[in-house]
Design a protein that fits this description.
Helix content: 25-40%
Distance between the termini: 38 Å
CATH topology of the largest domain: TIM Barrel
Bound molecules: magnesium ion
Number of helices: 11
CATH class of the largest domain: Alpha Beta
Shape: elongated
Order of helices and strands: EEEHEHHHEHEHEHEHEHEHEH
Strand order of the largest sheet: 5-6-7-8-9-10-11
Strand content: 15-25%
CATH superfamily of the largest domain: Enolase-like C-terminal domain
Number of domains: 2
CATH architecture of the largest domain: Alpha-Beta Barrel
Amino acid sequence: MNSYTFTYSIYQRPFRQPLKTSHGVWQVRAGIIIQLTDNLGRSHQGEIAPIPWFGSESIEQAILWCQQLSGDRITSAQIYQIPDNLPACQFGFGSALTAFTSDRSKSIQTALDISALLPSGAAAIERLPALSTQGYSTFKWKIGVLPIAQEVAIWTQLMTVLPADAKLRLDANGGLTYREAEQWLELCDRESRIEFIEQPLAPDKISQIRELAQLHNTPIALDESVATFDRIQSVSADGWRGIYVVKPGIAGFPWRLAEFITQYQLDVVFSSVMETNVGRDAAFQLASSLQLNRSMGFGIDEWFSDL
Ligand code: MG
């Protein structure tokens, strides 16, 4: 059993522009950077970046967990025993622990593909060409924000500026009615550049989402419905064969997530929890080891947040 010296520091990072989420306005990302040092003096960091309204612990609970470790030391056994109600802690400690045994120098792909979030509404039409020039070829646009007729009109224009070889994801954040979802799917079925529609209906409406998926060619991704590792497991057990948007930062131990994705051959999009480089690199490491082939929802800039 390995034992490590353990230190941690709490950070507060204001967003350049506050993020509007379905749970209100998010102004400051608070998280914890942990560091483990082994008896050879080698150190690795991990990041705990909770999103409580997405099903993880709160920052306060994560801080308590760090504080209760007595004597500034932690063993690998203690890390394996971090309970499932602390998934962001599991990821932070788990990824730091994994770093001692993985060859980080070789395995991060340099060309991991990132999807760019467009501003909502008509502003997307102007923004898309600029992002395209920067090298992005996968974009995400939020739907279910404006009345559907207005949104479809903007979308029609958006498709005229989307390059022929680019892809667009539509994220409804659970905000469509069944009939609206049908309308969108019918439109998208005639447009090959739509990669998928994300979370068309509310998180608990999985059987209706499955019905929509059976009736249309456009792939459907679940996000809010699969926010935590136990939700990923149960949705998979229920037979969902569409796409899973996974936020590794709050999905628990990285090795457990990797094993599950591999075992059930899940079609996965990795997505950000607005973490710093520490957590992002750990997620990239994991994505790289899994050879995921869909663009990831990780921006280099807060604006590209993928929630
Ligand atoms: Mg989403």
